[in-house]
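#struct-pred

JT: dropping the chains for the assembly here, can someone run the whole complex?
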Amino acid sequence: MEIKKGVAVSPGISIGKCLVIDAEDYRIPRRLIEPSQRLTETQRVRNVFKDAIEELTKLQAEQEEIEGQKMKDIFAVHLSYLRDRTLRKKITDMITAESVTAEFAVSKTLRDIASHFAKVKDTYISERAADIYDIEHRLLRNLVGGKRQDIAALKEEAIVVARELSPTQTASFNKEYIKGIATGAGGRTSHTAIVARSLGIPAVVAVEDITESVNAGDTVIIDGNRGIVIVNPDDSTIQQYLEYAVEYTELEHRLDTIREKPAETRDGVRVTLFGNIEFPDEAQGVLQKGGEGIGLYRTEFLYLNRDTEPTEQEHYEAYSKTVAVFKSRPVVLRTVDLGADKYTQSRRYAREPNPFLGLRSIRYCLQNLTMFKTQLHAIMRASVLGDLRIMFPLITNLQELMQAKMVLGDVMEDLDEEGIPYNRKIKVGIMIETPAAALTASMLAKDVEFFSIGTNDLTQYTLAVDRGNELVSTLYSSVDPAVIRLIRTVIQDAHKGRVEVSVCGEMASEPESVMLLLGLGIRKLSIAAPMIPEIKQIIRSVTVEECNKVARKVLGMNSERQISSFLRDAARKILPEAF
Amino acid sequence: MRPAMQFVDTASKFQSSVNVSKDDTSVDGKSIMQMSMLAATCGTRLKIKAEGADAAEAVEALRELVEVKKFGEPTPEEKSRQAK
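RK: done, full complex below.
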């Protein structure tokens, strides 16, 4: 039995057999195979070399014009390696001699070569180690590729263990079979976390060396409440967890009973609770948990689990399906937020040196007007079906907002010409998720009907911390004094400018932050569906007076640690079961 | 890595087996993996041995690539001269 600690990102308990997804950048555990399996594994090696050669030849042809001779040369060297019979033989010999998997043999052989290079004194040669790692990645990606597709087609219950999951992989998860998730990388706001939470799958991320600690088929317990993963638990631990799981389900049921009750503080102040979704299928779940609308529909997920870009009709169908669930209640569509860690089909290979500061989100849309207009056209067409609202992400200045609105105006004109009806008075708002937008909120307020504070990106950009990088993720905190001050500014400016303001980041679904947000003046939260009952319970247990006091105290504190422990204590008094 | 690739490409044009040795390590001259792992930096002394029907031509072509064409790349001295 091995107990490993990580970050709890999606609540719940699950016990099951694990499925290990081998990803790119790590050591593949040495797994022994049956002698009879050797032939299959050596054949897999041959196939993967063939696939990689094909892939690279294609890539080389594409690159030629863009990057010129240099890239072509690099790929030529890689190709030459892939065609090297002695390399392939070395790998297949290893499988035969040591009865290891194809993944292990490929990884071990290439890593040995790479470290041989790395040791050479000549820097030109030692730097070539990177080329060998690249070849290794390509081969592993292809080897594992087949298995990745299997995840979508998984037909039995499993707990997924991986180094890291891409948004594309999580998007293809089937909730019926995937009972829990544990990853080595990631933080509370990683996409794995967001998707797991919205699907209600217990998940723990940032578990060190998790992929090396398990073998496929091991029994694993995921404790998504306390951030613990237990590998091969003993019987008494399993028993203990089974009881705990029952208790937790009871708490959930108790919370479910407040579904019909309003999210109202003890002193009668009404708070609106919306749900965040990625797919239209999740809309029903929001309604069931008591959500009063959709505050954040992450429409870019329409791009992520497929090979081709969605058509206007596909956009339209997704949106109309969602609106149909909520009828006249609000559904806020965030226009595609691609780039950085989420890519479109055509841009998968065009990586940027600093993607989070690069061509992402609204910037990407404004440079790809055809794609942007396709989406806006579909949104406007669906706008007559209910209360659809448009929200532009990652605005950093007024000009971007005006440009985006102008494109929307163009689309409306097109619709007029086509004689297609749409809601002329559609509400338009923006995400406040950059320090620039937060600081100029008073100016931006004049041209929008609502603000939604995206605390994930706002925190990342304010504190200059990559939320997915486990080396610095401890510095990432939405209750850092700097972030709280920006949030307060936005709320004050929104009130002065008479625009609606809500919070849609993960912060809104952290029980310990709710009192603070209410105290700062927030009356509208948009959160993952499974969190709605718990957050409602907190709202129903407090008074605005108490919240104001909490906010005042927090604003007087000067360290993140002090603030987070103060908030945790305050929340624990209200809903002890949740902690 | 490009010189190693050129060497392997040239060696592979011949039927003869090509063997390259540096100090007491000797490798298959038609394998990029083995050739590049020799880590033969500029100025390294290599011994090229070929066996087979076109052995003489193979050795001559490889000698020319290394000594005459110099892989079509400027030597470090030439490079520093260009930089000035």
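JT: nice. Chain B touches chain A through 14 residues (CB under 8 Å). Residues 2-83 of chain B form a domain with the Histidine-containing Protein; Chain: A; fold (CATH 3.30.1340.10).
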